[in-house]
Amino acid sequence: MAEIHRLSAVQLRDSLRSGELSAREATAHFLARIAERNPLLGAFVTVTAEQAMADAGAADARYSRLRRGSGTDHAKHPAGDTSDVLPLLHGMPLAFKDLTDVAGVVTTHGSAALEHKPAPADGALAAALKATGVISLGKTQVPEFGLTAYSENRIAPPSRNPHAPSRSSGGSSGGSAAAVAAGLLPFAPGTDGGGSIRIPAAACGLVGLKPGRGLVPSGESLGDPAGLVVAGPLARSAADAALLMDALVPSPRTGYLGAVTHEPRPLRIGLTLDSPWSATFPFTPEPEALAALKAGRDMLEHAGHAVTEAAVRYDNRYADAFTTAWTAAVGTARISPHREALLAPLTRTFRRRAQQRSASKLNESLAFLRQFQRDTVTQYGAWDLMLMPALAQTPRPVGWFAGATHGGERWPAAAWAGDADDDYRRQCEFAPWSSMVNVCGLPAITIPVYWTGGQAASGLPMGIQLVGPVGSELLLLQVAAQLGF
Predict the structure, then answer these.
(1) 195 pLDDT exceeds 50?
(2) Residue 35 phi/psi, 5° resolution?
(3) CA angle 217, 221, 227 (to 5 degrees)
(4) What integer best gives the mean pLDDT of the chain?
(5) Three-point CA angle 181, 86, 67, nearest 5°
(6) Within 182-304, where are the H helices?
(7) Active-site positions?
(8) What are residue 457's phi and psi, to 5 degrees?
């Protein structure tokens, strides 16, 4: 057998269900990987090794009881016969980003301003996945309150890109993406309210799927007045993402993994570089982003799909309305006045602005975003899928967004030298095609189709994003699988 961390998530699932591997063996292997590599990567904030091994032991004990119940004649009752009673993800190690409550584990929200107390109960996302048999190894690094496209904060080292540790792994699911890309986890759930699955997936060379609104519990514990946040998979392949979707979606109408390799029909795909951020933050995509877009287009056309240029019109009021909705929750977060100084400058700035806005301003922004959704979905409806770069720039250096020096090495003191508005502008120019998908409530997937320098060994990953209509999660996974991912 290959080293456990080199197995795909599907292969690991099969090995655990067949009895070839025990849950304790798999858990111990990934914990050892974390102990070895996390000091460099900063992917994990908290590692719950003792609890994970206890949970793995309980999973193995259950497996043994089921085998005894099926008989001792292995020829007549192979371990695989327990598949109808074992949980779907029996013994599979994963971790939750540190915005999601896990019973008995501190949820820091990436903030030094909060009192760090163990969560009294599992959040919706953790509860749903634990019911499918997963073993939680801990909590992964996030930006403060999940607000930014990079996973750096004042409580732990920054999350770094496994392909180039001087670069960021993205955000807000940056720690989870780094862990999957580095083989510290077979796959991981992320949450996405403005690109927080797709941005780190693109930065780390993963498949990242943002499901449509309402399909999967978000697991977030702060407010979300615009209904932006949804949970979805970060994985090394479409098949692995499909497996996690089978666990995330309550009673799916069709199994994602079972259908992911079915060839999709020839599709009409609209290619666009238009962004609703352009009017406020004009940007020019880097050559690497355009090279990834060309590579993705070539792959799609080779697979039999028709890709044509698409012009999309966006209202230039978008930036203000989205920012108002996106930052509303941080204004109501319960933070003691004497601890507000511990907030990062960006968080503190947007919290103050949110508290100064009237309720009518928020309601006006939410109404605009609902109209924006209707207008944009109507325009996208001329095509089966929309195609655009995943990111406009290569993964940025650690500390770059916040104006840090020394690549964020001297966290946290050196990491917060910049201006909050400049920080936010940089993020919007880095990922200008992400947030509008959340506003529209549509499914979207990022696929790592290109490497700078032409190879993964020495380059940086760059990807494409495909956006589909409501209910197209399986189709997006099928297209990714069709392209070889």
Answers:
(1) yes
(2) -60, -35
(3) 55
(4) 93
(5) 120
(6) 198-204, 238-248, 256-259, 287-302
(7) 97, 172, 196
(8) -65, -35
CA dihedral 37, 41, 42, 47 (to 10 degrees): -30
Measured distance CA(452)–CA(396) in Å, rounded: 14
Decide which of 2 and 126 is more confident: 126
Q: Strand, helix or coil at 385? A: strand
Tens digits of per-residue pLDDT, 372-382? Answer: 999 999 999 99
Instruction: Tell the residue number behind the tokens 């095609």, with chain if given.
Output: 433
Tell me the residue type at 456: A
Look up residue 169 and give its two tokens.
């792994």
Phi, psi (rounded to 5 degrees) for 389: -60, 155
For residues 327 and 347, give the distance between their C-alpha atoms in angstroms, rounded to a whole number. Answer: 9
Question: Residues 295-305: pLDDT tens digits?
Answer: 999 999 999 99
By the 8 A CB rule, do 270 and 382 touch?
Answer: yes
Beta strands in 279-366 (DSSP E): 306-309
Cα separation, 415 vs 408, in Å, equals 6
SS3 312: coil
> What's the rounded Cα separation, in Å, for the pair 209 and 185?
17
b/e per residue 256-265 (b: at least 16 CB within 10 A): bbeebeeebe
Question: Encoding tokens for residue 346?
Answer: 């960006």
- Between 256 and 77, the more confident residue is 256
pTM, whole model, 2 decimals? 0.95
Inter-residue contact 63 to 160 (CB < 8 Å): no
What's the pLDDT tens digit per position in 275-327? Answer: 999 999 999 999 999 999 999 999 999 999 999 999 999 999 999 999 999 99
Cα-based angle 163, 168, 172 (whole degrees, multiple of 5)? 120
CB 93 within 8 A of CB 134: yes
Direct distance between the N- and C-terminal alpha carbons of the chain, in angstroms, rounded to an integer: 22
Please state, in angstroms and rounded to a whole number, the distance separating the CA atoms of residues 258 and 344: 45
Q: Which of 204, 183, 46 is nearest to 110 (CA)?
A: 46
The closest of 402, 418, 398, 347 to 158, measured between CA atoms, is 398
The Cβ of residue 92 has, within 10 Å, a number of other Cβ atoms equal to 28
CA–CA gap between residue 362 and residue 359 (Å, rounded): 5
* pLDDT attached to residue 352: 96
**Can you tell me the distance from the alpha carbon of 10 to that of 449, in angstroms, rounded to the nearest whole number?**
21
